[in-house]
Design brief:
The complex is a heterodimer. Chain A is an alpha+beta fold. Chain A contains five helices and 14 strands. In chain A, the strands form three sheets. In chain A, strands 1-2-5-4-3-13 form a six-stranded antiparallel barrel. In chain A, strands 6-7-8-12-11-9 form a six-stranded antiparallel β-barrel. The longest helix of chain A is centred in the first third of the chain and has 50 residues. The C terminus of chain A is likely disordered. Chain B has seven helices and no strands. In chain B, helix 2 packs parallel to helix 4. Chain B is mainly α. The chains are: A alpha+beta, B mainly alpha. Chains A and B meet through helix 1, helix 2, helix 3, strand 1 and strand 8 of A and helix 1, helix 3, helix 4, helix 5 and helix 6 of B.
Chain lengths: 315, 190
């Protein structure tokens, strides 16, 4: 009797372990359009409305718990922000005249038709789920194909760039955050025209690294890093230019290239409402993305007037 | 049928698992403590194993893992594999040692969280995830275990209260019987 119980117990364990390994191997080996991925997307489609409802119902609970933490940090943040306001006010006054001249020059050279966020048909979405472990930097949102969301669409919030859409279901989508090792964003430091690639810092998933900047690039602590509006390869997403990504925290003097450590502006641990830049088919951003995707490897595309002319969509 | 598992108990576990997983991804994941979030699914599986035994623990671990992987669009099977082992291990602890100390859930919660995180990390490394071992990553893993240990006792209380009516061998009855039988172990059948 005892032996039979032990045998049955071990058999159940072995069966479940083998089943897990089969699932893991099959899922890892199949293409994104494979059967298990389809099942997962189907599950996401089914549970998205439930997650959405649960998210709304449980928001007061989340806010209450978050309130305690926020209160603890509020005093330190207030002092820091006061200093920042003083610094920014001085900068704003100094740059007013420069801004005026800059606008005049832009008009003069007819460059003020650069893409802005509204050209990308932003779709507002609510974050309904978030991966709880340190291995996946992903969130799930309550807008999907039905709202015009596509794979690789950039995702932003009021603070800056969040990430890009990785998988889409009819009523939901999975967003890979910029702190995920699979994401790379072409970016530049605010005061410089040199572009590099922003990727997560190795070993510190909460920080970023702007790499492959020319060795003579000037970077100062506190400067803003923004999207460059270019792509570095055919698989990249074409993020709109000048979306804030983070602030420079330190500069690394290295070999032929220079890299800077960047702290993300967006609080990726507390995402609530985000915007997906959908770039509807036939629009200028969509045409540019298509053009970028068709470029041979290594050739850069830029959201500039020349490219607009090249797509025939600039008019 | 699993040993000692009635349909009523399995129903309760299934309902609890669904509620905990959705509460985990809808609320707990959004509320970081010390920069990390608690992982209630690991604690749930460990405590179900501790209350119901190894077979029920392993099956619960597999099912909860599958639900988490499906809901979070992660690689299917990774969480199932780690939680199956966690559920089985905590169930075996109950069957072999039957710990009665008040701090047992705390220690089981901490050990289960550590085992799950390390197991998860090993599987991810084997799958080639690009996240090299570093002090920051180790710090996050340790903090995750600490946070899970902090919430272990409340989670234990909820899991125990939810399942207590349908347990194969109610702890209160078991203790009472231990007194009346002069300390003979009631676990001889496991």
């Amino acid at each position: 009797m005892y032996d039979k119980t032990v045998r049955r117990r071990r058999a159940v364990l072995a069966l479940l372990v083998v089943l897990s390994l089969i699932l893991l191997t099959a899922y890892f080996g199949e293409a994104p359009g494979g059967g298990l991925h389809s099942v997962q997307r189907g599950f996401l489609t089914v549970v998205s409305p439930i997650q959405n409802g649960a998210n709304k119902a449980l928001k007061p609970v989340r806010d209450l718990i978050g309130w305690f933490g926020d209160t603890l940090h509020a005093k330190g943040q207030r002092d820091e922000l006061r200093k920042q306001v003083d610094r920014l006010r001085a900068q704003a006054i100094a740059s007013t005249s420069e801004k005026h001249s800059y606008r005049e020059l832009l008009s003069l050279f007819r460059l003020d038709n650069q893409l802005s966020v509204k050209d990308y048909h932003p779709v507002t979405a609510t974050v309904v789920a978030k991966s709880p472990n340190v291995w996946y930097s992903t969130v799930t949102i309550d807008r999907g194909e039905g709202s015009g969301v596509h794979v690789n669409d950039p995702v932003i919030n009021a603070e800056g760039l969040i990430g890009k859409v990785a998988q889409v279901a009819s009523d939901g989508a999975q967003v890979t955050l910029i702190t995920d090792s699979s994401v790379g964003v072409s970016a530049r430091i605010g005061s410089s025209s040199a572009t590099g690639i922003v990727q997560p810092k190795v070993g510190d998933p909460n920080d970023l690294l702007l790499q492959y900047l020319p060795a003579n690039t000037q970077a100062n602590r506190g400067e803003y890093v923004v999207t460059s509006g270019t792509v570095s390869g055919p698989d990249d997403s074409l993020y709109p230019p000048d979306i804030p990504i983070g602030q420079v925290t330190s500069v690394n003097e290295e070999s032929a290239y220079r890299s800077v450590n960047v702290h993300p502006l967006a609080d990726l641990h507390n995402l609530d409402v985000v915007q997906v830049l959908t770039a509807a088919r036939g629009t200028l951003p969509s045409n540019l993305s298509r053009l970028a995707a068709n470029l041979p490897a290594g050739q850069h595309a830029s959201a500039s007037g020349e490219q607009l002319a090249a797509t025939g969509a600039g008019g | 049928m699993m040993p000692g598992a009635t349909p009523a108990l399995l129903g309760r576990i299934a309902a609890l698992a669904v509620v905990v997983v959705f509460f985990q991804i809808g609320v707990v994941s959004e509320v970081p403590m010390f920069g990390v979030s608690a992982d209630l699914s690991v604690l749930l599986v460990a405590f179900v194993g501790l209350l119901c035994g190894s077979t029920v623990g392993a099956v619960t671990g597999f099912a909860v893992g599958l639900l988490v992987d499906l809901a979070l669009v992660q690689t299917l099977g990774v969480t199932s594999l780690t939680l199956t082992v966690v559920g089985y291990w905590s169930g075996r602890l109950r069957e072999a040692r039957d710990p009665q100390a008040g701090l047992t859930p705390l220690l089981v919660g901490a050990a289960a969280s550590a085992a799950a995180t390390v197991g998860y990390s090993i599987v991810e490394f084997l799958l080639g995830v690009d996240a090299p071992v570093s002090l920051e990553l180790l710090r996050q893993i340790v903090l995750g275990v600490v946070v899970n240990t902090i919430v272990a006792l409340p989670v234990w209380a909820i899991v125990r209260r939810s399942l207590i009516g349908g347990l194969p061998d109610d702890p209160r009855r078991r203790r009472r019987r231990a007194y009346t039988t002069g300390g003979l172990s009631p676990l001889s059948r496991s």
